[in-house]
Amino acid sequence: MSSPKYSVLLLDDSEDYQRILGRILRPAGYKILPAKSAEEAWQALEVRIPDAALVDWNLPGENGIAFARRMRQDPRFSQTILIMLTVNSRPEDQVQSLREGGFNTFMTKPVVPAELLARLESLLTRRAKS
After folding, report:
1. DSSP summary character for residue 26
2. Long-range CB contacts (< 8 A, 24+ apart) of 94-103?
3. Global pTM?
4. Alpha helices (H) along 1-130
5. Is the pLDDT of residue 5 over 90?
6. Contact 85, 93 (CB under 8 A)
7. Peptide bond into 34 cis (omega under 30)
8. Residue 92 and residue 98: Cα distance in Å, rounded?
9. If you compute the radius of gyration of the chain from its CA atoms, what whole number of angstroms results?
10. What is the pLDDT of residue 128?
11. Do the Cβ atoms of 83 and 119 come closer than 8 Å?
12. How far apart are CA 85 and CA 125, in angstroms?
């Protein structure tokens, strides 16, 4: 198997959902960096800067919006694509994640695998061209 084309931080406190996302992303060639809390995610980020991060809103401790805001304030992650992946589906949740968290896009769970892969590929391709 060829080496992964991109690395993706999976920040979700649900092991089941991490497994589901891994089954979608690994076969498409993505390297997965799993984390169940913002604290775990920061430890992973000290080792590797991911190309993208899928972040759940509802996390133990620091929520996904606060985590993303901290990432956006750190120049090391200025090129990292951030995707909010949550059960929160109100329009105001989408606006808050985009405005306050600096997310590139917002998706609700359960995720449609083809849509997730298409959005990820599109955002990463657009980033590479800029």
Report:
1. G
2. 96/65, 97/57, 97/64, 97/65, 97/68, 100/65, 100/69, 101/55, 101/64, 101/65, 101/68, 101/69, 101/72, 102/68, 102/69, 102/71, 102/72, 103/55, 103/68
3. 0.94
4. 15-25, 38-47, 64-73, 91-99, 113-129
5. no
6. no
7. no
8. 10
9. 13
10. 85
11. yes
12. 20
Q: DSSP letter for 64, please.
A: H
Per-residue pLDDT reduced to its tens digit, 21-59? 999 999 999 999 999 999 999 999 999 999 999 999 999
Choose among 14, 9, 11: nearest CA to 30.
9
What pLDDT does residue 8 have?
A: 98
* Tokens 């917002």 found at: 106
d(Cα 122, Cα 58) in Å, to the nearest integer?
26
Q: Given this model, what pLDDT does residue 1 score? A: 42
User: 124, 6 in Cβ contact below 8 A?
Assistant: yes
Instruction: Write out pLDDT tens, residues 57-100.
Output: 999 999 999 999 999 999 999 999 999 999 999 999 999 999 99
- Domain boundaries of the chain, sorted by first residue: 6-129
Pick the CATH number of 6-129 from 1.10.290.10, 3.40.1190.10, 3.40.50.2300, 3.40.50.620: 3.40.50.2300
